[in-house]
Design a protein that fits this description.
Oligomer: single chain
Structural class: alpha/beta
Largest sheet: 8 strands, parallel
Number of strands: 8
Number of domains: 1
Shape: globular
Helix content: 40-55%
CATH architecture: Alpha-Beta Barrel
Low-confidence stretches: none
CATH class: Alpha Beta
Distance between the termini: 16 Å
Strand content: 15-25%
Strand order of the largest sheet: 7-6-5-4-3-2-1-8
Length: about 220
């Protein structure tokens, strides 16, 4: 199947309320162009330099999502154009995004990443850190970020109950955050679910899925 056919197939399985992020990391411009020509406009990358290079070459109506772990010293390279940063996993990183957004006269949309998986290798905040961030005067003073919601990655396992428990946990974090209604938040996004588990994620409340191999083939 072609990239366009894969996209069409996946889109047909998604509710209208769910945004598809085509995970294009490591893929050549030609693959992205094929997806673009099939009307895909949201692409996810996990390396800032690669994303910046692609942004330069590709049409400017594309939304670029940074879905990988972000090093604070690299934020400046994507601040002029990034649409959404999924992996905000520390207050330090949020401060840097706010600073670089201000330099570019922008408000940058962010998702707070939570550690919901059993694996220790995954990055993310816990709920105590979340509460400390939103209670802090420094957070209140930020003028150049907007929190749209949460992101998380489930444990890489065939145990569907485990995955479901983790997705449900992320949804409850989102609901609790929404109930608190903190400043600088426009909460409408739960980014969870990838090629292997996105349908389960949607059942658990996901509004944004990150799909790569099912669109572009294996890496």
């Amino acid at each position: 199947m072609t990239i366009a056919q894969n996209l069409q197939h996946i889109q047909s399985t998604l509710p209208e309320t769910v945004t598809l992020v085509a995970v294009s990391k490591t893929k050549p411009i030609s693959d992205l162009t094929e997806a673009y020509e099939a009307n895909q406009r949201v692409f996810g990358e996990n390396k800032i330099q690669e994303m910046a290079d692609k942004w330069e070459e590709m049409p400017k109506d594309i939304q670029w999502h940074m879905i990988g772990h972000v090093q604070t010293n690299k934020v400046k390279y994507m601040a002029p154009f990034v649409s959404l940063i999924h992996g905000v996993d520390s207050f330090k990183l949020l401060k840097e995004i706010n600073k670089q957004a201000a330099k570019n006269n922008r408000i940058i949309d962010c998702l707070l990443q939570f550690h919901i998986a059993k694996e220790e290798t995954k990055f993310g905040l816990d709920e105590q850190e979340l509460n400390e961030i939103i209670a802090s005067p420094e957070f209140s003073a930020m003028q150049n970020i907007r929190i749209l919601g949460v992101m998380g990655m489930a444990t890489f396992t065939d145990n569907q109950n485990q995955v479901k428990k983790e997705f449900t946990h992320l949804k409850s974090i989102f609901d609790n955050l929404k109930a608190q209604n903190p400043v600088h938040c426009n909460l409408n996004t739960i980014s969870m679910g990838m090629s292997g588990d996105y349908q389960l994620a949607i059942e658990c409340g996901s509004t944004m899925v990150r799909i790569g191999s099912s669109i572009f083939g294996g890496r």
